[in-house]
Amino acid sequence: MKTGTTSKILDCQVLSPKGFIYFTEQKDDKEWENFQASDLEGAISKISTSLGLDFKPHGIQAESETSKKKPKSFKSILTSSKKHLKEKNLATKESAQAYLKIHQSLNVATKEDVLAVFKDKNLQELMPQIMDIVGGSGNTLAHMTAYELYTNPSNLKTLEVSERYFLALAQNKMLPESILEFYLDLLKGKNPIKITNPKMQETFLLSLAACTKRSGNPKLHLNLVGFLVQNLLKCKEDVQCYQMYLRALKNSQSATVIPILLKLVESNLDQKSAVIALETLKVFQPKILRDKVKHLDQHLLTIAQDPTKSLSLKSTSLELLLSTYQNEVIVEEICKILRQENDKELTSITLQKWLTLSGEYPDVNVLLR
User: Fold this and answer.
1) 226-240: per-residue pLDDT in tens?
2) What is the pTM of this model?
């Protein structure tokens, strides 16, 4: 009943915050047919007097049913989405939605929540997929728990599980800096760990290089780059060692290593490692390359004309020349080299690379016309 209107009286009434009086169990009584009141307080007073009761208004508190329910645990959400995480279902829309839901749950999970998942025998077959999620998480406790049980590079349980974690870590845009510092300390702290598995060592280094680059922390980035360069120079005749540290430096994308890499290419470094070093220079903008190495064009021309260098190294050198110096003089020099070499394969590879570059650099496109 709204105040100011007539209604039959009821035994029980509840006052709502919107100024309404609701009655139940109506009784037929003419006393109430002409009942009127100017406002809510007046209505309560008249009803109180008529019934001989002392009504006292009070506030009403309500709580939704959903707020009373505890949020689902990380384990329960993951378990309910178990079928969508299986390898055969990973390319589905449902799998993507499940990953997002699980990822959101993990970001607020406690250590106990994470432990419950890691120790569940029924979830062990999904551990590679779970590590994809943990590696991409911003939850510090989840990362540390994973390290304790699965991802310690020096104490491997399963190579695939550890690699999946570090590959996800390399792409993590919300990685806590404390986790990055923790792994860097393991690598070059007072008591550095020893990684005996070569594949795990390379994955670990490549991931950390990518993480420090993405972190935006110059100190951490240069700290790791310095470590990589020092160990690269210690490789001596170990080709696999050279290539591992070169790939890590490529992932770091630190311009400070440009002169070092060029010197390695010009030295007696094995041809495959030299190509990796030169390919690493391609990730930098042309201006950065020119600023870091004076007369870079002359260095690259020398490499391209060196009879001891491999075909792939020469073609990469010519490609880098054109992308870094987009002018007619360089084009004439490159054409001169191709005529001197008189190598159809080198000419073919170089032209293919030029065509690719013409789609990226308008000036190159003009030069090729």
Assistant:
1) 999 999 989 988 899
2) 0.73
